[in-house]
Amino acid sequence: MEASGERWIGHLDMDAFFAAVEQLDEPAYRGKPVIVGGLGPRGVVATASYEARRYGVHSAIPTAVARARCPDGIFLAGRFERYHEVSARVREILFRASPVLETMSLDEAFLDLSAHGHEAAAVAASLKREVQTETGLTCSVGVAPNRFLAKMGSELSKPDGFLVIDLEQVRELLDPLPIGKMWGVGEVTERRLRGLGLLRIADVRLAPVDLLVREFGSTGLRLHELACGVDETPITGESESISMSREVTYGVDLIHFEEIEGEVRRLARIVAAELREASMLCRTVRIKVRYPDFRTITRQIRVTVGTDSEGLIEVLAVHLLRERTVLDERGVRLLGVGVSGLGPTTARQLSLFDSALVGSSSQGQEAPQRGKESMGVESASS
Fold first, then answer.
1. How far apart are the first and last CA of the chain?
2. CB atoms within 10 A of CB 240
3. Helix-strand-coil percent breakdown of the chain, rounded to 5?
4. CA distance 29 to 209
5. Using CA atoms, how far apart are residues 181 and 328, in angstroms rounded to an integer?
6. 322 - beta bridge partners?
7. What angle, 0 to 180 degrees and rounded to 10, lies between the N-to-C axes of helices 218-227 and 209-216?
8. Number of H helices, E strands in the chain
9. Fewer CB within a 10 Å sphere, N or C end of the chain?
């Protein structure tokens, strides 16, 4: 590795996290196919153990398909309070090595190891051992000069792996890989790239940049940079990426508004209770709505002072549903309530009647814009 002054990023990814926690806590599950996710007729797999993956079961497939492929699997709804507890422990371990930590999800984080210079790889290897010793779980770690390569390192070494990627190795490592391995290349983009005859990462690297930009806009330039192993994206530190949420996919679409609002209220109360149990405050409340045709929207609202108030979180979630969401007359198939921008309870919650400024933003299908809302709320789009 290079001398101090070079940029070194670590990426840690817990192996089959939810399923691994279940196997850790219940010895009878060890060595058996464990599938965590929704158990209803519309449920989706969140995580599958490596034993289950041998049957073709993986995250994001319908639970019904997973049951057909692995009829002897152990199907569990999940214990998210426990997953948050283990995730928090892992974060504590990572903070020992770097104060610049960006948590992407409960089981995945980037950390800036540049301050350790030529010792960055050794520090990352030590963190990997500490995570396993202190949690009983394995993880995969990549270390590289940027985020993209660090993530590639952890992914290529899974499970329970460790890989350091130097810039000199980039072409040798990336060129033979299929384009689907590139960060941000989903099914649609992969299909379009294949239509252009670009099958491997090397093909994207060697493709004319103007062709990629013409076909994909600014994303085309980004794809070319990643194929060359270039990624200047900074580690932003703990931010809105840390979140808690609860969502439910319903076996029968919810049609009546009163029923939908009741579910949003219930989910908001559950999330608020989890927030208080974790001794955390949130700055953002959001709701998620999925329609029968799978179109999905999110609406969120931000408060200027962190809160763990059940009443405020419930009111804000209902406000987003009533004032910022256009419901489909066919109903909804999924509802979710989440909070983010989390921090420790060093400041108390905002009163419902405080005149704090609150900003809201939307993702996904856009709703008609409205003017200034009530409750000291001001709408804005981003």
1. 40
2. 15
3. 40, 25, 35
4. 50
5. 36
6. none
7. 140
8. 13, 14
9. C
| Catalytic residue from among 108, 263, 274, 314 | 108
Which tokens sit at 172? 């040798």
pLDDT digits (tens, 9 = 90+) for 92-145: 899 888 888 888 888 999 999 998 888 999 999 999 999 999 999 999 999 999
296 Cβ neighbours under 8 A, 6+ residues apart: 288, 289, 290, 334, 364, 365
- Quote the CA–CA distance of 25 and 81 in Å, as a whole number: 13
Find the helix packing angle between 257-277 and 310-324, rounded to 10°.
150
* CA within 13 Å, CB half, 93: 22
Catalytic residue status for 85: no
Task: Summarize the confidence of residues 226-255 as an average pLDDT.
Answer: 84
Contact 243, 342 (CB under 8 A): yes
Token pair, residue 274, equals 């989890």
Q: Which of 268, 247, 272, 243 is nearest to 332 (CA)?
A: 247
Listed range (245-249, 263-267, 270-274, 360-364) with the worst mean pLDDT: 360-364
Rounded (10°) angle between helices 17-25 and 80-95: 100
Bridge partners of residue 164, in order along the sequence:
143
- Dump pLDDT digits (tens) for 19-40: 999 999 999 999 999 999 988 8
Claim: this prediction has a pTM higher than 0.85: no
Query: If you write DSSP's letter for every residue of 204-266 in order, what string do you get?
Result: HHHS-HHHHHHHHTHHHHHHHHHHTT---PPP--S-TT-EEEEEEEEEEEE--HHHHHHHHHH
Residue ranges and CATH numbers for the domains of the chain are 1-165 (3.30.70.270), 171-227 (1.10.150.20), 243-364 (3.30.1490.100)
